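Side project, low priority. Logging it here so it doesn't get lost.
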Amino acid sequence: MSSPLINWPRNFGQVQKHGRNELDGGGGTGALRILIKQIVNAMMLVLILAMAVSFAIKSWISSGVIAAVVVINIFVGFLQEYAAEKTMDSLRTLSSPTANVVRASQTKVIPTAEIAPGDVVELRVGDTIPADMRLIECMNFETDEALLTGESLPVAKEAEAVYTESQNVGVGDRLNLAYSSATVTKGRAKGYVYATGMNTEIGRIAQSLKGKNSRIRKPIPKESGEVTWGAYIRAGAGTVKDTIFRFLGLNVGTPLQRKLSKLALVLFGVAVLFAIVVLAANKFTNNSDVIIYAVATGLSMIPASLVVVLTITMSMGTKRMVKRNVIVRNMNALESLGAVTNICSDKTGTLTQGKMVAKRAYIPAYGTFTVDDISDPNNPTIGKLIYSPASPVETADADETQDDVKPIPIENVGQHVSDPAVKSFLLVGSLCNLATVHHGKDGGWSCRGDPTEIGIQVFVTRFDLGRLKLMAPASRAEPGDDAEEDAPLNDTEAQWHLQAEFPFDSDVKRMAVVFQRRAFADGSTSQMVFMKGAVERVLDACVRMRTREGDVEITDERKDGILANMEALAKDGLRVLALAAREWTEHVQEWRGYPRENVEQGMTFLGLIGLYDPPRVESYRSYPRCYRFEGLSHASLIAESVKKCHQAGITVHMLTGDHKATAQAIAQQVGIIPKALYKVPPHIIRAVVMTAAEFDQLTDEQVDELPILPLVVARCAPQTKVRMVEALHRRNCFVAMTGDGVNDSPSLKQADVGIAMGSGSDVAKDAADIVLTDDNFASILNAIEEGRRMFDNIKKFVLHVLAENIAQACTLLIGLAFKDQSGLSVFPLAPVEILWIILITSGLPDMGLGLVQATPDVMVRPPHDRHRGVFTNEVLVDMLVYGLWMSALCLASFVLVMYGWGSGDLGVRCNNEYNPSCETVFRARATTFTCLTWFALFLAWEMIDLRRSFFRMKPGSTKYLTQWLYDGWDNRFLFWAVMAGFVTIFPILYIPTLNTKVFNHSGISWEWGVVFVEALLFFAGVELWKWGKRIYIRHYLKDDYAHDPEADLEAGAFSSPFESETELPPRKVAPQCSGHLGATRSYQPISRQPPPAMSTKPALQTNPRGIPQAPFISNVEEHVGGPDAEVESALRQFQEAIAKYRYMELNLNTRKKALLDKIPDIEKTLAMVQFLKDKREGKLKAKTDEDLEDEDDESSGAASSTQTMTFELNDTLYAEAEVNTTEDIVYLWLGANVMLSYAQEEAIKLLTEKLSAAKQSLTNANEDLEFLREQITVMEVNTARCYNWDVKRRREKRLAGGAEQGSSKA
């Protein structure tokens, strides 16, 4: 029968009837509040003041236009911010707490707002209770109700408690109820909802508090309780200060919004100062023209659209993140994501799929079971069961062809279950487990529970001993679960009834349950304790172990054997748990509050089970074939999120509760640490992988002395995560931390960016800044990429806006020099023109810049410096350069039209009205306005990439002449914004009355030639500046790229193989993280120091450039030290030597590639300088003018190709070579056209020497590479000879031992 409590249509009606499960006044979008915010802010205040001044001096057209602009700006800003607020509301809904509700026989995760009375809700540790509930099932269940009752201690709940109305029980004493907003601190429970929203107990409190929130500060009394007049004055002053700061935006919003509000305040002061300068230049006359000029100059410094564009950019960025499975809860995180230098990630469900599969089970009393060919982790009928009588250690060491180790496929599980040891092991796995596995209504298999427990439950179900079959119906009944209520009675020899449960805890790391067994045959009962958990913790509770000889005492030798088998399983990347059991003979009347330590003792160890959590296909680079699920194509392995993090200069740390060997195996699979650890020095290896116990034993000083903080921390506890974050902070790193449990909340708060899992607890989500809806590590990379894109875009439109402000202000201030016949200044730009450019022409392109796509190198640059923010040195210098260049061009256009081809007559009263004497002024002003408009639009396109040429933003493209068209079209919003700016300028110029009466300019004709020429000059200036920046960056900022931490580690972990620490300078890294893997690594292309000497200690020979020759080991036995010596040390020496030779080979190949690129460049430049020298000296034969023009074109084309080549090489990183960089050669070419003959001769001589040196270096590099390959071959031969000698020696010893054993038996 279907329970009416979980009927879906009925619950939908309940939501409509009772309303959504929300408290009133919980937020939402207030249209009136947004409208007031648009009117009452510092930017709008300036415009309103300008409008008031215009009205006061009766400049009706200017004041009317300003009023129209104010209305339009308020309206557009209101629509944009209202849409942004709506977007944020939807995001808040997505990130709101969720609840596990049982509906239609399935557990569904739904937002708490959709819960209705009658729903059955499951609760576990860390959940926030979504509504007031009547508990129907409790297991060690406690809640924190301090928010409701003020009680500081958790309250233990009892589902069996019943109260009558006459008892008048208080809210805090109703033990059978769980209240909305309380937090689950222990255990698990289930209950049905009886009140939601404002009808809950917390809703009644919220109703009584309505209207009591106030922004007025209260006076602070003295210790005696007296409130003085001074306290009232301080409170009043603080209230006024808060109001003013709130009005100016200085204490609301994100840090960047507050910083921009401060900038707006500074610019407001600058605007006032400039207005005073204008008045002073005109002797503070009260002439309306002068006042209008002052108003225009003040308006030119106001970035009216800055804050609005920032708000829109951030809201749209959060919307884009939702599509990439990232929900932003704290807007500050948007500004922080791009600065992340280190990610501390959990393993299960983040780096891995979170779908545990039981791969191997070791039972000391029986043997080892293995499951292969798993295509569906939830289906117990799919897969191949294999049995081997050997232990994992014996299987790893022995030959699988031996009969006592050879695996045997299982056809009939019954013959194995009949063994008591196997059955006891399977009973523990089935009953010490809260997960369920059963057939769904669609015929498929359905699972519910924790992934680890599901994996174990699926394994035992393969042997037909699932939990649902073993437990009595009353013990396993779930409200509303039709599949379980209708399940047939089990057909085993007994039923099992749950008596007590001691849940898994991150401190004890084990779980225990007490079951009563009732036999069908005679009705007798007995009780058993079942336990599972971390191997070390379970062994601590065990005194015996079950073997083939029976139950024996656990000695140190047997314990070492168990741990050795655990290591063998863990090395395969399996998470290993131990299972134990014992009989319970004591009679306990009340289990609630019974000490778990009295139960978890005297256990009998039964075996180990190894579970495999497959790495996500997005995060790993290699995937063991035996663990690969079907359907994972090779193409899906290409996406390597961890590798991309490394390429972005981000170090990934894995903090997991797994065993050290398991954690290391998974970390190597996903690329957190290199597979070839033999390349890494031993002292680095010890720091790379540590256990929490090893890490926690170190003091803070010892942690700071580590050469590298651990990349893998196994058996990690919550306090270890906090210590890791603190250690990274001491190294000036910016840390992102992932977590999903209640105990993770301290580390999430401690981290700079807390990242919670969507499937995690509500407490973790509340402590986090962002939430991953898919629990996927790849989504963290998406968030960082999006954060970097947004940060870059904010820099772009801030630079665009402020560069325009500088251009306008400089044009108007320098324009004070243009005086008319009355001695008053004539402004080159009218106030309405300035408003039009600021609010209309630039507003849409600024929004377009906030939405542009990420640049190709966004994830290969180091994290940005969070202390500088968007106002970096580069942005500040660019702002001045672009602003001054635009201003110079605008003034040049005004001067050319006014004085070059015009009469030079500035007329009379040309600032306010048109008259015949103002014809030339109006045409010059129109030309200046058109130029500035075009510059603003073109600058928006140039800002797509702050360094690359607009015409070559994708260096790898083969569309040499048309790539800029594709790049412009790719950013559609920006493209149409620029097109709109082009179109709207024509009606402004040519519509009668509108042009002369409103904008104070007139139509232009031949002046378009000036506009086009200045547009070309603008592009030329910007492109030349970018080119100079790229040259500077390559010369002086060679480390302005992200270091790959894994490459640093594999290449020698912070140092070149043979370098001298006192000889080489330290390598630069991102300034915000001195703990980065490459922080202390020095860089040298070719080593001069020899590798470590072998034990034979021959005198090593070197080639002419100091590369040591590898010694050939002829006698392996003598080399390793005798027939009984260990070969591991020798093998490691060989492997280290090979690694160092390969490192040198890598550097040489890099150097060779640089030389191959430079030599043609030098040859072309040498030919060009020689051509110019010959032409200057008249050595060329006389030719026609056409021939000479053709030669000039060829020379110009060659120069152009050299520049193009330079542009293409901008982002190429060279090893340090013996020739100068291409930029020096280009400098020579640029000067060759104006050099005297002797200078040209010096240039030819210098280039010839450099060409010869480069060719000689290339020859040396080829010889060195050949020499290195020979040495690598020698060392590989040494390694193979040593290994073969060791194998042969072991075989002889084994044969000798077998012969002795045979003779003794005989």
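Brief comment: The two ends are 73 Å apart (CA to CA).
Revisit when time allows.
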